[in-house]
Every structure is written in C-alpha cells, then in structure tokens.
Amino acid sequence: MEKYVYLFSEGDTSMKGLLGGKGADLAEMTNIGLPVPQGMTITTKACLRFYDEGEKIWDSLRDEILQTLKKLEEIAGKKFAGKDDPLLVSVRSGAKISMPGMMDTVLNLGLNDETVVSLANKSNNPRFAYDSYRRFIQMFGDVVLSVDKDLFEDELEAMKERNGLAFDTELTAENLKELVGIFKAIVKDKKGIDFPQDPVEQLMLSVEAVFRSWNNNRAIVYRNLNDIPHDIGTAVNVQVMVFGNMGDDCSTGVAFSRNPATGENKLFGEFLINAQGEDVVAGIRTPQNIDELKNVMPEIYEQFAENCLKLEQHYKEMQDIEFTVENGKLYMLQTRSGKRTAAAALRIAVEMHREGLITKEEALMKMEPERLDQLLHPMFDEEDLKRATELGKGLAASPGAVGGQVYFYAEDAVKAAKEFGQQVVLVRKETSPEDIEGMTVAQGILTSRGGMTSHAAVVARGMGTACVAGCEVLNVYEKEKYFSVGDIVVKEGDFISLDGGTGKVYLGEIKTVSPTVSGDFEVLMGWADEVRTMRVRTNADTPRDAQQAIDFGAEGIGLCRTEHMFFDETRISAVRKMILAKDVAAREAALNEILPMQKEDFKGIFKVMKGLPVTIRLLDPPLHEFLPHTEAEIRELADSMGVDFKTLNERVSGLQEFNPMLGHRGCRLAVTYPEIAVMQTSAIIEAALEVKKEDGYNVVPEIMIPLIGVFEEMTYVKKHIVETADRLIQNSGIQMDYLVGTMIEIPRAALLSDEIAEEADFFSFGTNDLTQMTYGFSRDDANKFIWEYLDKGIFEKDPFTTIDQKGVGKLMDMSVKLGRSTRPDLKIGICGEHGGEPASVEFCHNIGLNYVSCSPFRVPIARLAAARAKIKENM
Amino acid sequence: MEKYVYLFSEGDTSMKGLLGGKGADLAEMTNIGLPVPQGMTITTKACLRFYDEGEKIWDSLRDEILQTLKKLEEIAGKKFAGKDDPLLVSVRSGAKISMPGMMDTVLNLGLNDETVVSLANKSNNPRFAYDSYRRFIQMFGDVVLSVDKDLFEDELEAMKERNGLAFDTELTAENLKELVGIFKAIVKDKKGIDFPQDPVEQLMLSVEAVFRSWNNNRAIVYRNLNDIPHDIGTAVNVQVMVFGNMGDDCSTGVAFSRNPATGENKLFGEFLINAQGEDVVAGIRTPQNIDELKNVMPEIYEQFAENCLKLEQHYKEMQDIEFTVENGKLYMLQTRSGKRTAAAALRIAVEMHREGLITKEEALMKMEPERLDQLLHPMFDEEDLKRATELGKGLAASPGAVGGQVYFYAEDAVKAAKEFGQQVVLVRKETSPEDIEGMTVAQGILTSRGGMTSHAAVVARGMGTACVAGCEVLNVYEKEKYFSVGDIVVKEGDFISLDGGTGKVYLGEIKTVSPTVSGDFEVLMGWADEVRTMRVRTNADTPRDAQQAIDFGAEGIGLCRTEHMFFDETRISAVRKMILAKDVAAREAALNEILPMQKEDFKGIFKVMKGLPVTIRLLDPPLHEFLPHTEAEIRELADSMGVDFKTLNERVSGLQEFNPMLGHRGCRLAVTYPEIAVMQTSAIIEAALEVKKEDGYNVVPEIMIPLIGVFEEMTYVKKHIVETADRLIQNSGIQMDYLVGTMIEIPRAALLSDEIAEEADFFSFGTNDLTQMTYGFSRDDANKFIWEYLDKGIFEKDPFTTIDQKGVGKLMDMSVKLGRSTRPDLKIGICGEHGGEPASVEFCHNIGLNYVSCSPFRVPIARLAAARAKIKENM
Questions:
Q1: Chain A positions in Cβ-Cβ contact with residue B776 (cut-off 8 Å)
Q2: How does pLDDT run across A549-567, given as a tens digit for each residue?
Q3: If contacts are CB pairs under 8 Å, which of residues 699-718 in chain B contact chain A?
Q4: What is the ipTM metric for this complex?
C-alpha cells in the first residue's frame, strides 16, 4: 500500500519529489541529529490523489494522518487538545520546487477555547496565548473557510481605535480575548458554523485547504511564469509549533555560519530574547549581536555553534540559519545556503578548501564567475546611493560605478580632461570610432541608443571603462549640448554618475568604494588555471589593453581589430585618401603612407605579448565609417585633398549603404581592394620579423580574415596574404611561421565549414555577427524591441549577452564538426562578446573550442568559467 | 594491343572520350550512311602516350597511321602525293569537350611542288591550286614549324601593294605561285630547312604539332576557366579535303533543317556555287536561298534534303548543317543542334511531338523555360536598335522593351500619363512603396541603385512592367529633374527606351515588336501541367495581378503582401495615425479605420481566386517606411494630426533604423503591436466569410506570419490570430477552415524547423531574406560589389537570381526535413523571387516542396521548369 504520510525522521534530502523541498530538508536536518521541531509530511502523491478523490481527504489517508499524529504526540511529549501543555502545529505547503508565498499556511493549529487557557497557564502569558489564538482564527478563517480577511483586520483596527492604541503590540490580553470572541462571531456570521473546536477537524480541514491552494490562481500563474509543471502537486508539512516568546528562557534569532560580507569564518547574526521570528525582522526592538548569546545563554550558544558547524560540514556550504529557544530548549527551524558578497564568496571558497572541507573543484564551483566583476570595479557607496536621483536605466554595458562632468563631443571631453583635469562622462546618442579619444579620457560613457554590442559598449569593455548604453529615456541634443529626461535638463559641465554594472544613471555625484582584490583572488584563479583545458585570450587593440589583459591572466590575443588604429588623427587623412582614391595606384600610394604606422602598432603589441599568440583581423568596417558626414566636413576634406566638393560629395554619398551591417565590409573589402589586405599583411609580417630580430620573441602572427561566407573569398584573399607574407619572410632571411585563418560569423560559413577549413589554419567565431545574421536582427536595432521580447517571455535571455545555444549554438556546433572533418587539428576559438560570459564559455568548452577571447576585464571570469565547465563535464 | 587509330567508320557517338567530340560525331554521321569526307581519328590515348614518349610519335603509332592512311586512300580513291588527283587532308584537334579555337589546325596537307600542279590541272584552276598551297605553307609554317605568321602576312601585303591590289581575291595565279616561292624562302631562312615535300612527313609533323597544342598556353587557360581536366588529351582528326570551289559543279552552303526564326518545318539556308565555306560568311558574294539549289542542282538538293531529314530523325533535333559539293558530289561536313528563336523552339518542340518524332517529355526538355519570357514581352526592332545610343547597362530586372518620356517623381508620372496620355518611364535612384501609383502608370521603370530584388525590381516583375534596376552609371538628380551619363543629360520629358530583358538603356525612341503567342504555347503548357507534380502559385497583391496570374495558369496565391495596400492615398493617413499612436487605444482606433478597407482588398482577391488557395502575409516592412521623411512633409503631417512638429519629428526619427533589413519588422511588429495582427486577421477572415456567403467559393485563407526566428514568436502571434479568427467564425455561424503558417526566411527558423512546424500549418521559404541573412549581405548593398564577385569568379551566379544550393539550399533542405519530422504532412512552398527561376524551381522540386510561387509573368516559366524537374528526376 502506498505510504502517504512520513515522519520527518523517515525521509531525507533525496526525497524532494515525494516530500517536497521543505519536507525533505526538515527530514535531512532531523537525520543529522539536529533539534528540529518534529512533524510529518503528507506527500505530493497524496495531493494528486486528493484531486482524484474530488478534493476530499479519503478515509485511509485520514487514518494514516491520525496514526502518524499519535507518534508525533509521543515524540513531542504533548497531546493534541492536551489540558496541560497542548500540542500546537503549523500546516504548510512545500512543493518540490520552491514557490515562495504562492500557497497557504496555517499556524498555531490546535488552539481552541480550552487549550488557549492551558497555553496561557503553561506560558504564564495570557496575552501571548490569546494573541496566538486570534491569529489562528484569522488565518484559518481566511485560508480554510474563505472568510474575507479584511473583516478580521477591520475589527482589529476598530479595537485599537476604541482603546486609543497605535500598535498591535499595545493590545492587552483582555483586548485580545475580546477579539477572539469577535472573530468567532465573524465566522459564525459569514459561514453559519461555529469555529471548529476539535483540533483533528482543524487539521484535516487545513490539510485540504493547503492541497487546494496548489491550484489557486496565483500559484498557477507563478508556475506558468517559471516553467514549473502543473502536475507535480505539493506536499503538506505538519510541524510542532515552538515559541520564542513564552518568557525570558526563550529567544529567537538568525545567523550565518560565516560572515556574509567578508567571508570571515565566524558566526554572524542577531537574536532577541522572548520574541517571535518576525520581531527580529520588524525592527521594533533592536536585536543583539549573536556573540551576546554566549553571555546570556552560554550553553545554548555552544550548542547552536556546534549545530552550525555540523550543518556547514554536512552541506559543505556557508549556512543561513533560523533558530528558536523555547523554555531553554534550542530548536533549529530552517537552514539554507547563505547569500554573500562577492568578496565573501571568494574568501569562503578558498578557506573552505584550506580547511579541508572541500576540494579545489568544489571551491571553484562555489564562486559564480560573473561575481568576479564586483571585485574588479568600484561600486557606489550604498548610503549615498539611496539619496541619489535616478535619471533612468539603460543597458549595463561595461561595469564600474563612476561620476563626472557631462560632455557631448569627444573633443570637448578631451579638452576638459586634459586641459582642466576634469573627470568627464561622455554622453552621446551613439558613439563612432571617431570618438575614440574622448572615450579614452572619459570616466564613463553614456549613450541613448545602441545595444550591448554597440560601438560604445564594445570599446568601453575593451578599455575597462564604465558604460551605460541605449538609455532610451534620454533625449540627447548633441549640438545644443544638453540632454533631458522628462523635466530634468542636464547641460554640458553638469555632474552625473552612472553604474555600468546595473545600467543606472544618476544626477550629481555619488561617493564610490574602491575594489580591493585579496590574495584569495590569485589563489582561486590559480586553481582555475590548473583545472581548465580551454585557453583564455583577450580582445585588445593597443599595447595598453594587451598589458591589462596579460595582468589578468590572458594567454594571447584572440582579436586585435585594426580599424581603431585608422582613426588616429595622424593617419585619418591618409586613410581617407586611400578610400577616395580613383585607381589602384593612388590607393597604393595612400596605403604606403599608412603602412609604417600600422607596423608600429603591431610591433607595440607583439612586444607586450612576448611571443604569446596574437590574432590580427584585417580591416572589417565599411569604408564610409571613416569618412566625414556633414557638408562642412566634406568641404574641408575636399579642400585638403585638392578635389572639388561635388565630386567628393558624390563619392561619399555613393559609399552610403542601406544596411551597413549587411554591406561592403569584412573580406568583401579585401576582395574588391586586395591592396588593403596586402598593406596590412606587410605591416603584420614586417612588425613580427622586426620584433623577432630585436627582442628574440618567437612571434607567430595569426592573420584573420573577417566575414568569410564563400570558399572562393577565402582562397582569393588568402592568396594575396600568402604571396605577400612569403615574399617578405624570404627577403628577411629569418625563419618565421604565420597562420591564416578566418572568422566564422556568417551563417553560410558555418554551414560550409568543411570546405572553408581546407584553406583555414584556424576558425574564430564572431558570435556578435553570427547572432545578428542567424536571428536576422542587428544588435543596434534589436534594442528597440528586445525588452518587449524579454518581458513577454519570447526570449529568456538577450542572445547578444549569452549565446543562443539552440540556434546560433547549433550552427557553431555544426561548424566545429564540419571544420574538423576536413582538418582534424583545426584550432577554433571565439572572439565575439560572448567569449567572456560564463554560460557561453561553458558552451564553448562543451563543443570543443580551443580558446575563448574576451575583453581584458573579463579574462578572470572566462578563466573561472572555463574551469567550471571542465569540472561540470566530469560530474 | 591498344588501337590508337580509327577510321571514321569504326567509331560512333558513344566514343567521345576516346575519339574526341568531333571524331565521334564524324563517325556517327558516317555510320548513318551520310556522305562525309572520310578520314581517321588518332585517339586521345595516343595523345597521352605522346607526352609519355617525350612528345614524339613512336614507331608503332607511325606504322598504325600509315596502315590506316592506306585504307583511307582506298576509300577516297586518291593517293597521297598522287600525280593525277592527289589526296589532300586536313589535320584538326578534337577533344572530348569542345574547346573552339584553342588548338591548332592544318588544312590542304599533301600539297607540294608536284601535287600543286596536279591539283591545278585537275581543277583546271591554277589560281585555286596555288592559293591552296600558299595557305598550307603558311599554316604549316605557323603551327608545325613555329615560324612567326606575321612574316607570311607581311609578304602577302607586300605582294598586293606591288601589284596595286586591295583584296587577296584579286591576286592572280602567278602572284600566288610567286608567293609560294617567297613563303618557302621564309621557312628556309628562319628554320634552316627546306619546306617538307613528303606528304607523310608533313602529316607526322602536323599530328605532333596538334598533340603539342593541347598544352599551349591559351588551351591551358581555357581549361582552367571552364573546369576541363588537363589529363584527358585531344584526339587528332585527319580528314580528306573536299573543295566547293573547283568549278561550277561545286558549291558550298549552310542550312537548317527547319526555319530557326519561325520553326516552320522547311529547309532554311543559303549556298554559293563554286565557293569555299568562308565565302558564304564573308559577304563578298551574296549567297542564294537554299530553295534555289533545287533548280541549279536538283539531284544534289534532293539528296541533301533527304540527308537533313535523316539527321533530324537520328538526333531528334533541328540541325544546323554545313555541306560542300565537289565536282557534282555532295559531302556533309558538319551537323549540330541548331540555334533558334524562342518562337521557333516552341513550334519545333510541339510539332516534333505531333510528327511522332519525340515524346511529350522530350518536347518539354527542348524548351528552355527562361526563353518563354521572350514570347510574352515586346522586343526592340533589331534594325532600329543598331542605330540607338546606349546610355548604360543595369540589371535586367523585369523583361520587356519599352520607351517613354522620363519623369522623376511618381506624381509627375501619374499626371503625365493620366492627364496628357503620355507614355512614361519613371526614373529614380530607388523606388519606395510611396511610388506605387507612378510605377503602375509607367511603361518602364529605371533606377540607379538597388538589386534584382530591390523594391523597383520586385514590384515591376509583379506588374509585368519592364524594369532596369541599379544602373549605376546614371547620376540621378531627382530634385533637379534630370539625370546624366557622362556628358549626356536627360531631362524630364525627354524620351528614353529600355530593355528589361537585357538591362540596357537607350537614348530616344526605338521601334518595338509585339509578342505573338501561338496556340503551341498553350499546348506545351498543357503537357507541362500533365507532367509536373509541384504546384505553381503566384505572388499577387491586387485582383488585377491575381487575374493576370490565373490567365497564365497560376493555381493559387503563394504570397499576397499586405503593405502595398497601406500606401493608398485614401488610407495612408490612417496608417500613419496608427503608427504614431501613443497608446493601444489610439492605435486600435486608427486600425479600425483601416479594417474595412483591408477587408475589401481581400474580398477582391478572394473573388478573383474563386476558392483557389490564397496565402496572405501579415504586415512585414518596418513602420518608418510609411512615414514622411522630409521636414516639410513631417510638418504637414503634424498639422493634419494636430500634434506639434517637435514631438512628431522626434517620434519619426525615433523610428529610424541603422539596418532596416535587420530591424523592427515582420512578426516583430506583431509581437510589439498585436493589435495590427488582430486587425489584419479580422480583415482576412471577415472577407473570406463574406465571399463564401456571397459567391459560395470555398475560401480557406492561409495566414502567413513573416520573419519568424523564434518558436515563442510563433506561439505568441498565432495565439492572437487564432483567438480572433475563431471568434469571428463562430459569430458568423458559417463553417470555415483557415491555416496559420510561417515564412522561413531567417536562418534560425530553418535550423529549428522541427520545433516551429509544431505550430505551423505550412512553411513558405522567403529566399530573398534567407539569402541575405545566410550570406550576411543585403540585396541592395551587395549590388555594389557583386559584379566584382562575378568577375573574379567568386560567384558563379548571383545568389539573388538563382538559389545558392550549397549554402542557402542546405538550410532549406534541412528545414524541409526537420519540419516534416514533426509534421509529416507539412505543406511547404517558396515565395521568394527565386520561385520563378528555372534552376531554383528544379531545386525546389528536388527537395520536396509542394509549390513554388512567383510573379504572374513567370508562372509559365515555373510550370515548364517544374515539369522538366520531374522529367529529370525520372531520367
């Protein structure tokens, strides 16, 4: 016969499906010998049968509950409806998956007109007894009998008013006793029945009510929202009530087994003598530090500390524990994994391993990679933050809490920072590569348009600068040098603050707290490096970024973009001449001006990287990005180039595109203007040869062709690269290797990776573009509707933040398999923004990538995520 | 022992690999008993061994050639170096795959100082004999001895000059005899040898030279370009020379077995008495109609006609035949399948079946579907065309040869056409949906930007209007109302002509020839319909287009776009109100204004379609396409809406997108504004119900959701459609079915088709967008570099014209298989522009599509292509 009712001592933590989460946890605590108020769990299967039986407790279940109740009475040493010390119980729901607040609870069950008197006597506290009774009637009335709970509340208010009282706590025992009478009258009036006096009847009705609450409206909505099945039912826990407010040998409290702010291995918490759990939270009385318990109840404290240690040892995790002392006896009410700051998480993980409690792998699994971010960036002072005026919320594009004076043009920002030493925040509708210098000097960057992978966001992350992108409530008037949010106007020079970790923007200045990285950080990172098999590289375009990434443990550069270098003031004019050249000869002349500069760029990077691999991507963006847009700028350029305005203007507008993202860029530039690829190859190879000669580093440059979609593009561009590189190497008389590979960022390249791998030494997934093409929306434009997609549950997560494993990931997996089918040793990495996002890093590990590459500040996150992926693989 | 030399009578057409194409064809003609000048073929295997033997004819091959030569002398009744009637031969290359002009040929071999005299006597024409001899020396000198051929040409010129002659033909026998001496002296001078007098030596040297020419430079380049293997070698054909210029009992001519212009089953051709083949082409003498041969050489004519019939019967194909009559004896020199006009091809195919010569299937395989276009559109008069000034060449976007007066704005075009009855050509940089009325009245449409699937191209094909798109040499100044090409300026009102079948644009007016569709067209189409298993639908947005398509045999509408309807003057203001609405209520109010109009649109279409399936796509383009762009227009709209300019302007610019193709469009509109989908569903369902009631047609509307990429988009939008439709149907009391399906045009939708098919009643491939996303370039922007891709051989064909089977096709195939894995009866079609392109139609058949849908004028092409695909499947 199916067993429907379990004593806590009959279950364990593995039985969550049958006993629900709460029931299984209480059973587990019981089993490890902790003093848990005992009870029984009526199973989820009983709940399901309850519905089959027409929402009634059937006879045999009733019998089983009563039999188990008998055992409970024995264990507790109290009796239901007992004259002396009556057994009171709570009745609570508890599904397999926690649904906090969604279903019903009844406390103090077992009280009636007689037992309330016993309780008053036993506790020597009639006020407590009648307060407990009126609460029970109120809860039972609401939950079991469906009496409008406002009726009770109204009477409670009326009672206070009649007696000129402000708080519930001021009500006397007499007031409460009177209220019990009034409450019972309400039940009689509304339901036509006397309030049930038989505790067994109370119990059966309450169990039925909790079973029914599984299908109340809010529970159904909650399950729909959280993808919880509707057919698993809830268990019901009937647990002996204990009271911390029966006298001065009672108390109640909450404690963490370690300090949740710092991670120090020392009990941390608060308690109150003669109080209920809710009093600790309510703030009416000031709780005492848990250390004080040592003085007040030394034995209890020792026992509690021992239990905490036992729980930590059992769960191998810092615990958040609720306890109550009833008449000098300690009860452990609840324990769960404790929430903690990032710093605490780090320290706890490292120390628990040192204490021999957990393995290195378990330590690594305790630290969420994403939380490392908090350790590396400044944060706002919490008190100061509470007083700040929030202007709006955009995308949390690059973490860090910063403030500064607002500037709308890069040149103004540069001037303010360099000439006047101001802290500046660059505010723009969107940034473009022309703004790069202003972005470099800014403390923070704020844009009103663009997504997580817009120019502003990508560059800011690369530089480790705080950035909030796509803050659409801002109306930015760049020319007029102000922005507005509703009625608030912020002008050039005004101070604002922004938190790139939350996306929030504030008016004025807010104090910040600097990050402090402890030695534990390096220790944990060291363990991560021991464990992981996937390499971590960085996306860096400058020696400065490269050095930053090296300091964070990067093992190479996975993406060195070459276009930012083109915007430098000293070379943009040569770049423009190159773009606007009428023929190959003129274009080559302009390229020859750029060549020595590009070579110096690469030398700088090769020197910092000291022989670590460096992947350099050939020019990617559409050429019109390098050209001026306004008539005045075009006139100026025409003058400086000595051509007439009309011709130049036609040429400039001829380069405009309908959809720049889908236009003439990437390897398409190299196909139409192979001279550019040749110049860049020359710069890379010459730089590598010179660094090899000058510094002796074994540089093996990796030349990466962007946006390949067609095999013949690959062969065409590669031919130009190889001819150039081989000639230069041969002429140098130095022996040097180099690789030629491709981005995989066009769906077609993923589909035909077998073919493409025949010509590619390596693949690097450009998941920004691959996501755009696979979904058919651009990251910048999607920003307008992606919120609604997230709101309506169409997207669980923003696919530009975490890889869409089902769609984009399917293409990636296909590409890896196809690529290695023709070139088994194909080196494959990822250099899209996803390379530093933990779930994506795990996915990359799982499909067999050799490395991920991410912005310098995300390198530690990627290292940890890669280690955790490896650990999970072995689990 | 390997046989290396075959008499023509020993081979047949199946031996092309061994004998080469020409050798096998000559053998085949010999075998069916035609009077072919006999000869021998030295095999391709001999060629390969020739290279193994160090580029020498080895002894046993020499022996085999000599033995076969003996047989040839017997057959020809002439002897090499014969005194009386010497045997002369030609030596020609002939590979398996024809490589016209790439390898070498020697004619008149066998002539020497003695045989030239015999020939002069025999032909009674010394001039002919010496001319033949000097040609032989010249060719042999060039091909075999590598003497610079200019040396011979220079002497020829000098001889004419000395004698005051203008043409070669004016040279006398004496002149030519002298030239022979000079030519031999050149050989002696340059090579230090006497010109070889032994015909056998001449032959061996010539065979070696032809073998060597297999690996000359131009042959290698040609094979590289045409993907012909380098290791198959060439055969050498040694054939008896016949001469049509030895007297008045000689003649030469060319004829088609049927009329290549009309297809009439009657010999068609020309001949010349006493002439060489080249004389017929050269135009110095006017050839006579082949009918005349009946009078001049009645027996020869009869024999020739009989041979032609025999060849047609043998090849089951209209033949293009060369013949020569030498001294009263007919020789058939060459036969091949004859080129013909589209009209002729159609008539020949139909009549050949009627004559019992071929099956219906064979008839269908004779008609290239693409050629049907020529039968349905006017063409330019050829003579008139020769005199026209070509302005430039763009994309052949929609066929038809037309002319008219130039207008740059739709409204000007409408005025000119309606008020002044002008023929107009609308010229714009690019068209947009606002131009629709101007496009409707225009004879032709010309744009300077945009690709084969730009707005102009798509709409023009839909309407059957001629269109040249993306003619980039044009500088269009719309505001100034003129365009320029180099120095030529064309102003509003000037006349131009354009051919949408070739993409060419001309200055001024050119006469056109109207198409005449014969009854044969319907007959062949009928056969196609009997054979094909794939359905053919049309893309049509109006009752007019729908009727046009029905007339062309469409079996339903595969794509009815709903956005063009939104641009109608009477409703654009309601549409704009809807777009700019501040809240759902205001949006619904505006939609309620549009609803009755949309309903009428659909009723019109349902009535024309009389119960045939109609697939209606919900609103697809980004909303900003419906808004005004200039400040003046925005001010006007602001006034008419009673809002202030600034607010409206901000709203309009807020809707602008970086990449409209990748923006807020398709089902993304329905997700953010479900009201729009609800309104459109109401219009569709109400229209269907009313037509069902009024006309009794069994309308089963197919509602198609565009741009699905995520399963949850599908469920979300479908829910709104189904709720709306079910409510309306239930309220109507009428029983009606409807389908809800999706476009597959986003790569992710293809990748996850199994999931999406669970919610979709049908799929329709939107291969325009699918191609864009899979390649990662937009059709409009790709136009800038796609030419270079075609030039450089990176693309074989424009993927927007014919489906990229390897990449895009792989996704389609995957989608079909995945979709039917969860819904085996899933109906799948295609409604992209590719649906009317024969190779794409064949691909669609092969991957198991149920139908293709294309613009009305391409329906016949698709019907024929579908039939041919089915036939090929069974071959």
A1: 662, 707, 709, 745-748, 769, 773
A2: 999 999 999 999 998 788 8
A3: 707, 709-710, 712-713, 716
A4: 0.83
